[in-house]
TrEMBL record:
It is an enzyme of class 1 (oxidoreductase). Keywords: NAD, Oxidoreductase. This is aldehyde dehydrogenase (NAD(+)). The lineage of its organism: Bacteria, Bacillati, Actinomycetota, Actinomycetes, Streptosporangiales. The keyword Oxidoreductase applies.
Length: 501
């Protein structure tokens, strides 16, 4: 029987709300969990609870908070297989990929456990005698974190771990279609010894979450918003936060280009295109959008790519497959809409398109050759197993095509020429660049994030995310015993500027 999942605020479960069925997309008739969705009032209440708990949490020394993060990492490690199996069951991610996603939480914890001893400020020399200047990192307060379900446990950890380490409290709103996975992760965090109210989880739909966030911002109980999801929703959250003079941490969609130069190792390029285009059924923000292939190698690359896709296994995510089902019914419906963007001038490969036979939300992989720069398939994110292919003649043209959609998350170039690699890096607008590697793949100690339609320049992961969850505070300490006025009482040394040899 499916479990019932409820919101948890201040360590207490809220056994009320509107029922929502989180299904197994490989067998949609199977309900993984019944989720009780809360409303805007509950979200605002969670933010008030977090604000009250945050003050005491911030007083705990940062190295001690780091030990809590270390405990989270060890607990995730001890529960890795069970958590990965739950992710596979709830969102249809192949088990091997799900294990990798869980590993990413462990890596994130391992990186940040030491940052509790490295929340460095600086001692800065003063222009005055008998005066010292200091800088400190201080927590922002309460972080409201809203995450998607394609990476239901790894991506949330990118927000939760550094936010908690830095002394903030968190209200986390996961995707409702991945509620069981999120609730399991919450329980692991709670078992590490977090005080009640420091981490709260609220299950709600989009409109209620937005209304609750708007209320909390108005009440002053949210000081940072982290959001992973679509560009359209990211814009709305950015506008809302802007009205309160806040800058959210936005990780949005992508139309990620892969440039294949005439000197590329085509077998390697095909392997990268297969993984980044169709891994997780193309439902990553870093999934390959368009392969931009030099005209001299287009035909050969396409032949090899089509063969690789045709030979790939799609099916039960518990088996050895390239990808499993789409995440949920709503993503299947959107993918079917994307298929209507195929035009007569396109060549569709390798075979049938649309939903595969059987119960699960399985869809055939689609390669669309001949996409043009003004096609919707070229310009807009297509969240699902579909990859466009186009051609170029010069590297400058390839860079222009790579930037044209206006996204700027991830990118890739396959070449053996270092000059081409560095010219591409300098010219592409993406926040992340891979050379002879796929557009997908993140490591816990590198900055993750995009520009343009892919985000507002904020970064997750690595030490760079600390700037999202701390504020800089400056302090000056004058022990001269008199008022020294900056820029006015500064000693002057007069040079002889007319001196010449």
């Amino acid at each position: 029987m499916a479990r019932q999942i409820v919101s948890v605020i201040g360590g207490k479960e809220l056994p009320s709300g509107t029922p929502y069925a989180s299904i197994n997309p490989a067998r949609p008739s199977e309900t993984v969990a019944t989720v009780l969705l809360a409303g805007a009032d509950t979200f605002a209440e969670a933010c008030r609870t977090a604000a009250a708990a945050q003050r005491e949490w911030a007083q705990i020394p940062a190295p001690v908070r780091g030990r809590v993060i270390a405990s989270i990492g060890r607990l995730v490690e001890a529960n890795a297989e069970e958590l990965a199996r739950l992710v596979t069951r709830e969102v249809g991610k192949p088990y091997r990929e799900a294990l990798g996603e869980v590993r990413e939480i462990i890596d994130t914890c391992d990186f940040f456990l030491g940052e509790g001893r490295r929340l460095y400020g600086q001692t800065v020399p003063s222009e005055m005698p008998d005066k010292q200047l200091f800088t400190f990192r201080v927590p922002v307060g309460v972080a409201a974190v809203i995450t998607a379900g394609n990476f239901p446990v790894a991506v949330p950890s990118w927000y939760l771990v550094p936010a908690l380490l830095c002394g903030n409290a968190v209200v986390w709103k996961p995707a409702e279609y991945a509620a069981a996975s999120a609730h399991a992760l919450y329980r692991i965090f709670a078992a590490a010894g977090l005080p009640d109210g420091v981490l709260n989880v609220v299950f709600a739909d989009g409109p209620e979450t937005y209304a609750g966030l708007e209320r909390a911002l108005g009440e002053g109980t949210v000081h940072k918003v982290g959001f992973t999801g679509s560009t359209a929703v990211g814009r709305a959250i950015g506008e809302l936060c802007g009205r309160h003079l806040q800058s959210p941490c936005l990780e949005l969609g992508g139309k990620n280009p892969m440039v294949i130069m005439p000197d590329a190792d085509l077998d390697l390029a095909v392997e990268g295109a297969l993984f980044s285009g169709f891994g997780t059924a193309g439902q990553r923000c870093t999934s390959l959008g368009t392969a931009i292939v030099h005209e001299d190698v287009h035909d050969e690359f396409l032949d090899r790519f089509v063969t690789a896709v045709r030979n790939a296994k799609i099916g039960d995510p518990n088996g050895d497959v390239l990808y499993g089902p789409l995440l949920d019914h709503k993503f299947a419906e959107r993918f079917e809409e994307y298929l209507t963007w195929i035009q007569p001038h396109h060549t569709v490969l390798p075979g049938p398109i649309g939903r595969m036979e059987g119960e699960g939300l399985y869809y055939h992989p689609v390669i669309v050759d001949g996409v043009r720069p003004d096609d919707r398939l070229f310009l807009e994110e297509t969240f699902g197993p579909i990859v466009g292919v186009t051609t170029f003649s010069t590297l400058d043209e390839a860079i222009e095509l790579a930037n044209k959609p206006g996204y700027g998350l991830s990118s890739s170039i396959y070449t053996t020429d270092p000059k081409a690699a560095f010219r591409f890096r300098a010219g592409v607008s993406a926040g992340m660049v891979s050379v002879n590697n796929s557009t997908s793949g993140a490591e816990a100690h590198l900055p993750f994030g995009g520009n343009g339609k892919s985000g507002n320049g904020s970064r997750q992961s690595g030490m760079w995310v600390l700037d999202q969850f701390t504020r800089w505070q400056a302090m000056n300490w004058d022990y001269s015993g008199r008022l020294q006025k900056a820029q006015m009482d500064v000693a002057e040394i007069t040079p002889d500027l007319g001196f010449r040899l």
